[in-house]
Amino acid sequence: MKQRSFQIYIVTATLIGIGTGYVLKVFDLLFIMRLIHTLSEILESIFLFITPWIIILYMTSGIMNIGKKSGRILWNAIWVSLLSSALAGAISFCAASFILPGILGPVPESAINKGILSTFFEFETLPTADIVTSIIGAILLGLGLSLSKKTKIHDLIEDFRSVIDALINKYFERYIIIFVFGNTASITYEVYGSQLLINFSLIFVLIIILQLFMLFLQYNFLYGYLGMLPHNIVKSMLRAYFTGFGTQSSSVTVPITTQCVKQLGVRKWVAEALIPLCANIHKVGDIVAIVVSCVGLMFVYGNVPEFNQILLFLIVMTFVNVISPGIPGGGGMAALSVTDTMLGFVHFQKILMISLFKIQDSFGTATNVVSDIFVVSIVDNLSQENQVKEPKESSEEEVMEGESEEK
């Protein structure tokens, strides 16, 4: 499917989903909404089943082709991701502390609208591995294969990856469009008329503005550091943005993000090794949403956050986001363990935080996805400066010569 056509389909599916959810809520057509929600949940289960395979095969293939210097490239990706996330958290805290205290009002518990949608039946496919296990397994396997001579295992990995590529090219994108429609319809149905959305409209707008501001900073840094034109980056990454917006999953969007990053000149093997990793450790959008939501809720209930408290919170949240799964709502759920122990959030505040996170999740995931070009481009440039060259595939003549020498 062509990039422009896919973007149009994603936007159309999103708008139709919003309209459908609105109409079904107004006329109280719960049966039809549950039917759409059931289809969306089935597709999400299928996507989550195949996601570990995408991560394992893409990362393993990319890392093993990088060669013996793959460890340096991975470490570069990790520290760049951590610095980017920490900067996003610091900017979000400063902006939220300056803007929110004078404009937020109290939110009653009755404003929470949750659990109104359920599926007609349970359809849950157990993934072959969780996201963190997939990443660790892919890194270890890729590093091991990069240090060994080419064997049948190398060919097997590439063959399996070609199978996944074929599935993605033939089915993945069209089913994502259906999933986007069902997912946006479900969200619209749940939040329509909710006092939470009305009372927290200002904090929602601030989150979106800060997410876009972080992308503005990152893209302009790439222009100053690497000469990459911001409007070219935006044009190439739109496809990934709309896919992340609709799926609310960085991991599910990995194939689309990888294609977009390659179009911007990042070497193929670097993109395929790092995009699956960045989908799970580089979450600028999530950091912004969590920090702004937590700071806002603290001001709403009269708790003025202290600098030392927030500084430690930012440090911990940066690392928590590294291990949170790249699935819908994963960043918000991972933050719960931090908010109650470090910020003293009670059950009601945690529900509000998750509700806010859910409302903005499409924007947050989209920001996560398109900000990965920042990390991958920098690491790709550093690897070229360190003379990490693209691996060359052995030609048939070289293979024949090698076999004759062995004989």
Automatic annotation (TrEMBL):
GO terms for cellular component: plasma membrane. Keywords: Membrane, Transmembrane, Transmembrane helix, Transport. It comes from the Bacteria. Residues 386-407 are annotated as: Disordered. The keyword Amino-acid biosynthesis does not apply. The keyword Transport applies. GO terms for biological process: serine transport. It is a multi-pass membrane protein. Residues 395-407 have a biased composition (Acidic residues). InterPro entries: Na-dicarboxylate_symporter (IPR001991), Na:dicarbo_symporter_sf (IPR036458). It holds the Pfam family SDF. One of its GO terms (molecular function) is neutral L-amino acid:sodium symporter activity. It is found in: Membrane. Its main location: membrane. The chain crosses the membrane at residues 7-36, 42-61, 73-100, 131-148, 198-219, 284-304, 310-327. PANTHER family: PROTON/GLUTAMATE-ASPARTATE SYMPORTER, SERINE_THREONINE TRANSPORTER SSTT. This is Na+/H+-dicarboxylate symporter. It comes from Sediminitomix flava.
